[in-house]
């Protein structure tokens, strides 16, 4: 091997300087976009709560968003899956119109009362804005992959206020069982800086009071792992149900704008019957699940509203509804498992997300960032259990299987081949 011209630390300086500049630029773009989005989301939510009659216009809003995407948004309709596909197989720079389309579509969804989240919007905006730098800096395919991953990390971090979880999410979400360490520096820097940019714009994130943590003992560990299995099954069920609903709608309703219109009718009628507890982000109910016992069927209500909204084509994300489902389910399980309800609500908050997104490391780190380091061991156990028990499907269709979660023993494989 030919000796290096410079010592390795010195040779790395141009790389570090280049990606420091690019990552900070991505952070400025993604953090600013997320701040604008969060302010618009707060305004839309407050307006809807003050004028609840607007839910009856949800079918028309769904039709309008579906029509706009049909006319000018077909190439970006895949959303997060398009970003993941472009990282795996780089082809074309993502059209800039993805960012304003998903921002407006998500705000409209929340304004009129659909049950959707916000991570999808922030991730798509971060990835889209980052990808516009490809031509400016004349980046190759391998460098473009890193650029997109940094944009994903920056968007996730800035919308939730969890910079380390955002960085790991961008590395972990692409393939089950694999991390992309070639992008670890840009993703870390972009996520941390994007979170700071959001706060500089005045963004405030919700605080969750976790309260007392049960001491580590045989029973508490076993109970948390058992709960983690259930959290994983619920996460898998949500991903499967949402994909099935979407596929069914596309099969039987070929005209795209009619799908969210019919979904809007279903959601509006359900709100008339059950009230507004299960629409929007549901942050007040999540906070409530940390403060007092909630109805044991709340997680089912949010589950059904989310499947109806996302499966019919409303824009947004899946993660905040997953937080709601996990927190309320954990709250309901706490008395059965003899654990503090706030503690198990926090564990469910991240573990259902870990199972549905196949991101146990990012979810564990998110728990530590949101609830403190004391919950770390329990969150890790629950997130890993949820990840292992959620199968190889997930909320992101383009996520690939880098490494199987488990392998059948040789005897079982032989029998399966008979």
TrEMBL record:
Recorded topology in the membrane: Multi-pass membrane protein
Domain of life: Bacteria
UniProt KW keywords: Membrane, Transmembrane, Transmembrane helix
Main localization of the protein described in the UniProt heading: membrane
UniProt-listed InterPro entries: Cl-channel_core (IPR014743), ClC (IPR001807), ClC-type_chloride_channel (IPR050368)
Gene3D superfamilies documented for this protein: Clc chloride channel
Pfam families associated with the record: Voltage_CLC (PF00654)
CDD domains: ClC_sycA_like
Transmembrane feature ranges: 21-41, 53-72, 93-112, 146-171, 216-241, 262-283, 303-324, 336-357, 377-396
Subcellular location per the Swiss-Prot or TrEMBL entry: Membrane
Protein name, per record: Voltage-gated chloride channel family protein
């Amino acid at each position: 091997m030919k000796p290096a011209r410079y010592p390795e630390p010195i040779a790395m300086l141009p790389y570090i300087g280049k990606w420091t500049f690019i990552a900070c630029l991505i952070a400025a773009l993604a953090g600013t976009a997320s701040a604008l989005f969060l302010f618009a989301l707060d305004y839309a939510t407050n307006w809807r709560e003050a004028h609840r009659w607007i839910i009856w216009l949800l079918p028309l809003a769904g039709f309008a968003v579906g029509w706009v995407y049909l006319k000018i948004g077909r190439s970006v309709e895949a959303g997060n899956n398009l970003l993941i596909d472009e990282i795996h197989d780089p082809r074309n720079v993502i059209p800039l119109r993805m960012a304003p389309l998903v921002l407006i579509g998500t705000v409209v969804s929340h304004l009129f009362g659909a049950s959707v989240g916000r991570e999808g919007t922030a991730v798509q905006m971060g990835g889209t804005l980052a990808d516009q730098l490809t031509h400016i800096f004349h980046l190759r395919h391998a460098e473009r992959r890193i650029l997109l991953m940094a944009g994903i990390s920056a968007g996730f971090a800035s919308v939730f206020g969890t910079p380390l979880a955002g960085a790991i999410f961008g590395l972990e979400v692409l393939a089950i069982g694999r991390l992309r360490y070639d992008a670890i520096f840009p993703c870390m820097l972009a996520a941390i800086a994007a979170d700071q940019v959001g706060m500089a714009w005045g963004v405030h994130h919700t605080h969750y009071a976790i309260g007392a943590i049960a001491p580590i003992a045989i029973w508490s560990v076993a109970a948390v792992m058992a709960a983690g299995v259930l959290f994983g099954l619920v996460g898998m069920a949500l991903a499967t149900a949402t994909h099935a609903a979407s596929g069914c709608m596309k099969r039987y309703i070929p005209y795209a704008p009619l799908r969210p219109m019919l979904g809007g009718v279903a959601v509006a009628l359900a709100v008339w019957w059950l009230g507004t507890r299960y629409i929007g982000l549901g942050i007040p109910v999540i906070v409530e699940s940390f403060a007092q016992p909630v109805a044991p069927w709340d997680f089912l209500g949010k589950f059904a509203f989310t499947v109806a909204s996302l499966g019919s084509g409303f824009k947004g994300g899946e993660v905040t509804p997953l937080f709601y489902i996990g927190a309320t389910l954990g709250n309901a399980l706490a008395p059965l498992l003899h654990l503090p309800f706030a503690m198990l609500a926090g564990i469910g908050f991240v573990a259902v997300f870990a199972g549905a997104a196949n991101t146990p490391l990012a979810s564990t780190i998110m728990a530590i960032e949101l609830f403190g380091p004391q919950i770390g061991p329990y969150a890790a156990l629950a997130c890993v259990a949820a990840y292992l028990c959620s199968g190889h499907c997930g909320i992101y269709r383009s996520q690939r299987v880098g490494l199987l979660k488990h392998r059948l023993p040789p005897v079982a494989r032989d029998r399966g081949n008979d």
